[in-house]
Amino acid sequence: LTAMGDPGMDPAMSAADSTAHQDSLFSMTDVFLISLITGLFTYWFFFRKKKEEVPELPKMQSVAAPVRDSSFIEKMKKTGRNIVVFYGSQTGTAEEFANRLSKDAHRYGLRGMAADPEEYDLSDLSRLSEIDKSLAVFCMATYGEGDPTDNAQDFYDWLQEADADLSGLRFAVFGLGNKTYEHFNAMGKYVDKRLEELGAQRIFELGLGDDDGNLEEDFITWREQFWPAVCEHFGVEATGEESSIRQYELVVHTDVNMNKVYTGEMGRLKSYENQKPPFDAKNPFLAQVTENRKLNEGGERHLMHLELDISNSKIRYESGDHVAVYPANDSSLVNQIGEILGTDLDTVMSLNNLDEESNKKHPFPCPTSYRTALTYYLDITNPPRTNVLYELAQYASDAGEQERLRKMASSAAEGKALYLSWVVEARRNILAILQDMPSLRPPIDHLCELLPRLQARYYSIASSSKVHPNSIHICAVTVEYETKTGRLNKGVATSWLKGKEPGQAGSSSLVPMYVRKSQFRLPFKPSTPVIMIGPGTGIAPFIGFIQERAWLKQQGKEVGETVLYYGCRREREDYLYREELARFQKEGVLTQLNVAFSRDQAEKVYVQHLLKKNKENVWKLVNEGMAHIYVCGDARNMARDVQNTFYEIVSEFGSMSQPQAVDYVKKLMTKGRYSLDVWS
């Protein structure tokens, strides 16, 4: 109430002046106080009234609303849906399967919607029974070592902590995994088991897709049995409608402001021109390539070392993390698709979702040109899935070609076999299919709607941030092979990276990237011994590990034994980082360097053979030194063979049976002492 003080009183006023004005001052004060009290009362009355009304104002409620949609239940009620298909997706495949299932629903007189669990509150699952003939389907991919995908992490956490009653919920789960990994389909299995524990009713058995085999066939086989089970449960029948249903409508922009057109950005328009941290999957950083050198001295392959400048990006990374890069498709492939379909690729267009309630307004950033979509947003190099062939079949003017496409998209054994041989094993991408089926000429907008999104590629970082805080190093091998049809197929990302020229102006030296955190970490105590096993480009994270151990030693820290098992084909051909490793060994940081050259002698020698050769030392490090073991590289053969070798060493020197040795190694994994960074 400092404002109630009397600003009319001058501190310099004399006592006489003060006395002379006293009477009039009191009468003025009385009037002032009465007015003030009346004013305060009036203000309080109106203020209180407003306060009571505030919560009823819709604007105030919307401001306080969470970022997520209020409820997928409300959305389903509003749009007349009864089937929701949630997806946990890292590379887009689970999302694609979810979209296919939700589109299937109309054939059975039902209505479906695909949903990202990250965008909704999954505790609402307990309310799904409010909707007639309702069903929740979960297409859940397993990522890394049995982990949930990024977008399913919150859902996974909720499931672990939830004590909800889901007795009214009907569900089914299809898992996407890879049998070469230790924890095959862990996420799908967990969701299926946990939902049942919470009281939900499973209406069809868990599906387990294997990406090491034929994931597409696994999905189709599960789906063709899933829908009859749904029909039986709800007492509905297939309507027989097998017609193609477009999800997006084409809008061509003839008079458009080019500043409003996407040119390859992943999220925010003009984000590549005006870069703002933090950088992530939806907002990648444009890193300058400062070095791009060939690592191998001979052989047919091209192995390369790249350095990306992350100065001023505020990007932080640790040894063992992954760097994700967004590649671009080969312009010659894009041009050929445009020529075959007789399209002006520079036409600016938008594909707008026909379902106005959908959170996904476009299949990729729009408006954009066909050229940009086919270069930066769409996967044009992988063999297309059967649903794409089915949708495209209607555009084949030749009856034989149309029948062939429909057969490959069918669930019949003959059709599956044809798809496997003609598409998958022959590695036919969409361009090859268009070339080999001259009558197949779909509208380019429908093709763009059907093709999956081009995904980021992940590489184990080959540097330590302690030594290189402003750059991230990549070690990669270019993928190039001849298909059964005689075509030369090239890996999208590695071919694109190979062409990056350091120091060049423009996009020829820029790489959109972000860092993804990993659990692949050096021990907390530098004195703990480490055994690193990484043949080929699997050496990448270990270059970072060794750099970090060297830095720690320079800081005066006690560094434990640092043992590397590395393998390549020939010593004079593809011995990666030979000079660096020799220097680290000379400096005493790398205490053991064991290299297997698989093709330098008649009998092939691999890393597991060297482990067996040094088995006594390996056991001593693990058993007495409490060493941490790290394996990086091929999951299908190498990682499995190395693990089997550890079983043998543990069994022999620990005097254990085979099952006990397996249990011992599994416990090392649980304790974080046996870590994998593998791919298939």
From TrEMBL:
EC number: 1.6.2.4
Residue spans crossing the bilayer: 25-46
One Gene Ontology cellular component annotation held by this UniProt entry: cytosol
Annotated GO MF terms: flavin adenine dinucleotide binding; FMN binding; NADPH-hemoprotein reductase activity
Cited PROSITE patterns: FAD_FR (PS51384), FLAVODOXIN_LIKE (PS50902)
HAMAP family according to UniProt: NCPR
Protein name in UniProt: NADPH--hemoprotein reductase
Encoding gene per record: Por
